[in-house]
Specification:
Strand order of the largest sheet: 1-2-4-3
CATH class of the largest domain: Alpha Beta
Number of helices: 5
Structural class: alpha+beta
CATH topology of the largest domain: HIT family, subunit A
Order of helices and strands: HEEHEEHEEHH
Strand content: 5-15%
Helix content: 40-55%
Largest sheet: 4 strands, antiparallel
Mean pLDDT: 86
CATH architecture of the largest domain: 2-Layer Sandwich
Distance between the termini: 43 Å
Length: 192
């Protein structure tokens, strides 16, 4: 078997000493999927979390403590680095990913080195904004302005929209479906 890349980093003291303890160490992966992505790795070579649940628990505790200061994040581990496995563990050594998340980071899970195309992402966001702005313009045109700056939605629209909310797409009228299809058309050219 080839030398484990995590064991090599631990032997070479290539980890963050302030977060290391007698059971686990932390370091950045070679190809972080987002800024701040870190790994919590067992000091001893353990193939995965199932092979040593006690050490896996200590690694998870360390990951949770690190994540506490990050806000939104994913804490992820996988079991199954063999070619016949469908899990996404690529290094057969117990490790937990702590992946900080932010809106628009473009990271889809399970991740790959291929991230969301930022140009496509922004094009879709622009379409979504145009869709929202169109809806707001429509709402403003149908509602009665109030002295406090609010809008009063007519009762017949509330009734109609509630029916639309409660109706599955396949039970809508063709005219109602056409309205939804118009929205799909805005995206269609980008996703083909």
């Amino acid at each position: 078997m080839d030398e484990c890349p995590f064991c090599a980093r631990i032997t070479a003291d290539q980890f963050a000493p302030l977060t290391a303890d007698s059971h686990v160490v932390t370091f950045a992966p070679l190809n972080p999927v987002v800024p701040g992505h870190i790994l919590v790795v067992s000091r001893t070579h353990i193939i995965n979390a199932a092979a040593d649940p006690i050490t896996a628990g200590m690694a998870m505790q360390k990951a949770a403590n690190l994540a506490r200061g990050l806000g939104s994040c994913n804490i992820i581990t996988s079991i199954g680095a063999e070619a016949t496995q469908t899990a996404t563990q690529t290094v057969p050594h117990l490790h937990i990913h702590v992946v900080p998340r932010r809106m628009g980071d473009g990271l889809a899970l399970p991740w790959t080195t291929e991230q969301v195309d930022p140009t496509l992402y922004e094009q879709l966001a622009a379409i979504e904004h145009a869709r929202w702005a169109h809806w707001q313009s429509y709402m403003h045109s149908k509602c009665a302005p109030q002295p406090d700056g609010g809008l009063l939605i007519p009762a017949e629209l509330v009734t109609h929209w509630q029916r639309m909310i409660d109706t599955p797409y396949d039970q809508l009228t063709e005219q109602e479906k056409a309205s939804d299809r118009e929205q799909v058309d805005r995206y269609w050219g980008l996703i083909q």
